[in-house]
Design goal:
334 residues; alpha/beta; Dihydrodipicolinate Reductase, domain 2; 33% helix; 23% strand; Semialdhyde_DH_dimer_dom; EC 1.2.1.11; Aspartate-semialdehyde dehydrogenase; lysine biosynthesis
């Protein structure tokens, strides 16, 4: 297949390229694309260096699959262009996710949705949404999910290269005793992220919710085909380099015991059960970093909700939360 990657020099774009190679995706022609600013740089794929081209309409000519990770503005501009030129676009931004004519896909959950793509665009969900629905959908199929209450602890890699550097710089400053300098260093986030937590991911609306929280609400409903699902979400940014964690309380239409939930999740594709708290075995973002699965553990009965379960989830936000899921979607088209 002829494959283009738009945003090839970014953190997620580079991971997409590495994932295409690691999964032996059938690439006959490879086109790394970027903004003019990054054009001319090199990326490594299939044992050789490829020069990154500035994105243009002609860059999509003859392309079968175009995988995008260049932000919402670029996706809104270039996805229709690529589709008009004959490519199927797999877009990692939020630009198209809630468009009723664009499927929003997690292959382990709703892979058949890729078949209905009138605009030639398939949306890749938000990272935390992917992690959450991967853990909850197998239980939803068995017991009917009616409510989910989620708090995310999101690593700085979700904000790109600059955030990783910022966390490293701030941490060094704090450890050197320069707390004021670390506070002033903050630029990616509204406050210093080192040795703290920021209860804001995205921009706030008039109701006091961020756009990241609304992604969890609306995307979860769309992916799982559950438009009436009740969702409460608080998204936070934490001083972790890579790997998101989620604390989830889920309520079901019928009672589901922790042991039943463990048995279901143990057989769920893409999920790894890590649930032996007495031996300090549970999902950790540090363990999830650099791996593909969604890890689930600390499964226990809710103390306040009838037919409720509490659980803890961790996964690599750059892998399954972005690059891997996008490549899995592309594999459905191969």
């Amino acid at each position: 297949m002829r494959v283009a990657v738009l945003g090839a020099t970014g953190l997620v774009g580079k991971e997409m390229i590495a994932t295409l190679e690691a999964r032996c995706f059938p690439v006959d022609d490879f086109r790394p694309l970027s903004s003019p600013r990054s054009a001319g740089t090199k990326v490594r794929f299939d044992g050789r260096d490829w020069e990154v081209q500035a994105v243009s309409p002609e860059g999509f000519d003859g392309v079968d699959v175009a995988i995008f990770s260049a932000g919402g503005d670029a996706s809104r501009k270039w996805a229709p262009v690529a589709a008009e030129r004959g490519a199927v676009v797999v877009d990692n931004s939020s630009a198209w996710r809630m468009d009723p004519q664009v499927p929003l896909v997690v292959p382990e959950i709703n892979k058949k949705a890729v078949e209905d793509r009138p605009k030639g665009i398939i949306a890749n969900p938000n990272c935390s949404t992917i992690h959450g629905v991967m853990a909850l959908y197998p239980l939803h199929k068995e017991a009917g999910l009616s409510r989910m209450i989620v708090t995310t602890l999101q690593s700085v890699s979700g904000s790109g290269w600059k955030a990783l550097v910022e966390l490293e710089d701030e941490s060094r400053m704090v450890l050197d005793g320069n707390v004021e300098g670390a506070n002033e260093r903050a630029s990616v986030y509204p406050h210093r992220i080192a040795f703290g937590a920021v209860p804001q991911v995205g921009s706030f609306d008039d109701q006091g919710y961020t756009d990241e929280e609304w992604k969890m609400v609306n995307e979860s409903r769309k992916i799982m085909g559950a438009p009436e699902l009740k969702v409460d979400c608080t998204c936070t940014r934490v001083p972790v380099m890579r790997g998101h964690s989620l604390s989830i309380t889920a309520q079901f239409e019928r009672k589901i015991s922790p042991s039943e939930a463990r048995a279901i999740l143990a057989d769920a594709p893409g999920v790894v059960l890590k649930d032996d708290p007495s031996s300090s075995i549970y999902p950790l973002a540090t363990d999830a970093a650099g791996t593909d699965p969604v890890y689930v553990g600390r499964i226990r009965e809710s103390l306040s909700l009838e037919n409720g379960l509490d659980l803890w989830v961790a996964s690599d936000n750059i892998r399954k939360g972005a690059a891997l899921n996008a490549v899995q979607i592309a594999e459905l088209l191969a």
